[in-house]
Structure formats: structure tokens, C-alpha cells
Write a structure and sequence with these properties.
Helix content is about 5%, strand content about 55%. It has about 425 residues and is mainly beta. Strand 23 (about 405-420) and strand 24 form a beta hairpin. The model is unreliable at about 1-30 and about 200-230 (pLDDT under 50).
Length: about 425
């Protein structure tokens, strides 16, 4: 959800220019240092998933005419993220940090085939998400502030975001951080093929005739006229979805062995909060797309506690309580215990437990009634619990690997199991170059 903002870059250059006009008195106190590439991070990961409750097919496998729509949630995702960290100092001694990132994901999802009830839709999709973040820090006073800009694009979804953040440290080992962000999204209204609304949009093509055969990779659709192909990407209308978030974090060092943090978020969403190609089947056999309220208020509250056992073991614990006005309540508890085998190599076993209640609007396949106002059969809104566990391995030898710029290497593997029968595995590799 990330886009490089030329406006922010321009403001930043003007900001540096302003510092170049300071008096000779300040120049003599501190020697400015231009921006320098300090660190490169590259993360690559592979994710695979199985399950049987696809929201595209109404929460499970169903028969539509002579066609069996498979409720498989089988999915694979290959993701890559590159981040550059640049650091410099102005002539007044203020530290400037720029983080510039670019991510690319490619997935294959079995459920996407059934956006068309013939199973002809493409199962593949690609997402691209650049970002840029600028922070100015006064190390003497312990204060910092900055701005970020983000963009994300895939065939049926676009998102642009901005954020601002501020933090300061006190003299007793405490640190306060605040952040506000806003995401402005557009959801392409790609319907199941049998539920395309009978409306006509401008240009040439009646929308009622469009059957999307590729929901996420941009190859367009097929017009019902035999043998005629068009790219109808621009003809598909979209609907906005906006998300506004305010976050507060307070971290306190208790002593040389212990540290805790308190976290509070308030999230407000409005717009199209479901997906138009998620089907719902009613008790009377009729069908519709999921319909959810056009606003949602979320309030997560969390706490972290880290404890150092000697020089070799750290216990990192976390708890979060979540509630929203759709009736969902959840609890998350996790623990990770990094153990340093030697000064240059460590292992980190981790475990996370999660449980949630269902939203007011969820019911399984064929259990909603057509008199309801809001309804979904997406199992992410159902009641379930899950377990996630795995192991991380990290090596950071002095001087890097074989005297190269590669300073650290981390490998992590995790397995996720949900009581709805959804299971997944993820493996990631993180390279740090300095």
C-alpha cells in the first residue's frame, strides 16, 4: 500500500536547503554529513496455504447447475521486499533518515478461478508496493518526527497512504511514540459472473456483458459475443475504501534486564468493506454477493514485555485485546525466546495463540436468510482459534560474511493451523548489507 511521493521528496530537498543557510557559528559547531547509504535489507518469502472454505464460493464447495464450484483455499505467494536506508546530518546536528522500499508479490489462488462460475478466471495475481519514509531526529533532545508515503497496486485493488509520526524520550528511560495514517483505496467491482449487475456504463461496453476471466493480473475480460476479446479493465467501476488510524505507544526501561510497552490503536474504516466477488447463498436457494456495513470502528490494545536472562537469552512476550462494532472480539498472546549460541549465531523459537468470536454478519454456506440486511460467509469473520509456531536462525559475524557487505542473515520458518481447517506454512530469508 505504498507509493513514492514526489511531493515529499521535494519538501525534503527544500528542508535540507534551508539548513544550508544557517550561520557560520553553527557550521563551526557541527560538520554536516550528506546522505549516505547505510543499510540494505532484502526479504524474500514463500507462503503456501490449504483450506476448504473459500469466500468466492460462499464458504464451501457447492453445485451450481451442472458445475461443481470447489471451495478450495489453496494458495501460494512468493514475495520480495527491498529496502534502502540512507542517513545524513544537517549542519545543526539533526539526523535525517530516509527509508525507501519496493515490494513485489506474486500469488496463485485456487478460489479466484470461480469468480466465473465456469472456473475460467485466472488464479494468478501480482502486487507491487513502493514506499518512502523520512524521519528527522534530534539525538541530543531525544525527539523525532517524520512522514511516510505508500502505494500498492494489483489488478482489482489500488491503495495510497500517508502517515505522520512523532516521538520523544524522557530522562527516566521512557519513550513515547504517536502515529496517524490514512489509506485511500479503490476496490474494482468485479462480480461473480452470474451476478453482474444489469447496468450500462459509459464508453462502449455494457457492463452486463462483461465476464471477468482474470481477476488480478490485468489481462482484461471476455465479451459474450463469440470470438470477440476486449480489455475491459478501465470499464469496470470501482468503489472507495478509506482507513484512518491513530496509534500511541509508550515504552519504559524498568532496569537493565526488563522493558515493557503499552500500545493503543483506533482504526476507523468507511466505504466498500467486503469484496464484490464473495458469494452468499441463502436458505431459500437464492444467491447474492456479501453485503457488509459501510463503516467499522476497531480498537486494539496491547502490551509487550521483554526480559533479558543473562547475556544469552531474551524472553519477548506480547498480548493484544481487540474489539470492534461488528461484534468481533479477539485475544492474541505470543512468546519468542531468542537464544545466543555464540556471539555470532542465535536461534529463536516462537509461538502465538489467537482466538476470536464471529462478527454479527457471518453465517456458513446456505445458512443466511434473504431477509437479513448484512451477510457474509467469509470465514475470516467466523469464530475460530489458531496456533502459529516456528523457529528463526540468525547469523551476524563480525566483519560480515567472508569480509563482504553481507552483515547478517536470518532464516525463519512458521506453521499456522486454524480450527476452520485452514493450514499454512511460510519460510522467509532476510539479508542485511552494510
Amino acid at each position: 500500500m505504498k507509493k513514492i511521493s514526489l511531493t515529499l521528496i521535494g519538501l525534503y530537498l527544500l528542508f535540507l536547503h534551508g539548513f544550508s543557510q544557517v550561520t557560520e557559528h553553527y557550521t563551526n559547531i557541527f560538520q554536516a554529513k550528506p546522505l549516505k547509504l547505510e543499510e540494505i535489507n532484502l526479504v524474500t518469502s514463500y507462503y503456501s496455504q490449504t483450506g476448504t472454505h473459500s469466500a468466492v464460493t460462499g464458504g464451501g464447495t457447492l453445485v451450481m447447475g451442472n458445475q461443481v464450484l470447489n471451495g478450495s483455499e489453496q494458495l501460494t505467494d512468493f514475495a520480495n521486499m527491498l529496502e534502502l536506508k540512507l542517513v545524513g546530518y544537517g549542519e545543526t546536528g539533526l539526523k535525517h533518515t530516509i527509508l525507501a522500499g519496493l515490494g513485489v508479490d506474486h500469488h496463485t489462488a485456487a478460489s479466484q478461478r470461480w469468480i466465473s462460475n465456469t472456473g475460467a478466471s485466472s488464479p494468478e495475481g501480482t502486487r507491487v508496493y513502493p514506499s518512502i519514509n523520512w524521519t528527522e531526529e534530534n539525538e541530543a533532545k531525544g525527539t523525532e518526527f517524520g512522514f511516510g508515503s505508500y502505494y500498492s497496486h494489483e489488478y482489482n485493488y489500488n491503495s495510497f497512504a500517508l502517515d505522520g509520526h512523532y516521538g520523544f524520550k524522557n530522562k527516566t528511560g521512557g519513550e513515547f511514540a504517536g502515529k496517524v495514517s490514512a489509506y485511500f483505496d479503490q476496490v474494482k467491482l468485479i462480480y461473480p459472473s452470474e451476478l453482474i449487475p444489469a447496468t450500462t456504463i459509459t464508453d462502449v461496453t455494457p457492463y452486463v456483458n462483461v465476464i471477468k476471466t482474470n481477476a488480478s493480473s490485468g489481462k482484461g475480460g471476455i465479451i459474450n459475443t463469440p470470438g470477440t476479446n476486449y480489455d475491459n479493465k478501465e470499464n469496470i467501476p470501482s468503489s472507495p475504501r478509506n482507513t484512518y488510524t491513530g496509534s500511541l505507544t509508550y515504552t519504559q526501561v524498568i532496569n537493565k534486564s526488563a522493558q515493557f510497552s503499552l500500545l493503543l490503536d483506533i482504526v476507523k474504516q468507511d466505504g466498500w468493506l467486503g469484496l464484490p466477488f464473495h458469494r452468499v447463498f441463502f436458505t431459500n436457494g437464492t444467491e447474492a454477493i456479501e453485503n457488509l456495513p459501510h463503516s467499522r470502528l476497531k480498537i486494539p490494545v496491547g502490551a509487550r514485555f521483554n526480559y533479558f536472562i543473562g547475556d544469552d537469552i531474551i524472553v519477548r512476550s506480547y498480548y493484544r485485546f481487540y474489539t470492534d462494532d461488528w461484534g468481533l472480539v479477539s485475544h492474541t498472546a505470543s512468546i519468542e525466546v531468542p537464544y545466543k549460541i555464540n556471539p555470532f549465531f542465535s536461534i529463536s523459537p516462537f509461538y502465538r495463540y489467537y482466538t476470536q468470536t464471529a462478527t454479527k454478519y457471518f453465517a456458513p454456506l446456505g445458512k443466511h436468510t434473504s431477509t437479513e440486511t448484512f451477510y457474509t460467509s467469509n470465514y475470516s469473520s467466523s469464530a475460530f482459534s489458531s496456533n502459529y509456531f516456528g523457529l528463526g536462525l540468525r547469523s551476524a559475524p563480525p566483519g560480515g560474511f567472508a569480509n563482504t557487505y553481507l552483515s547478517a542473515l536470518e532464516l525463519r520458518f512458521g506453521h499456522y493451523a486454524q480450527t476452520t481447517d485452514l493450514n499454512s506454512n511460510v519460510i522467509s530469508l532476510h539479508f542485511t548489507l552494510k
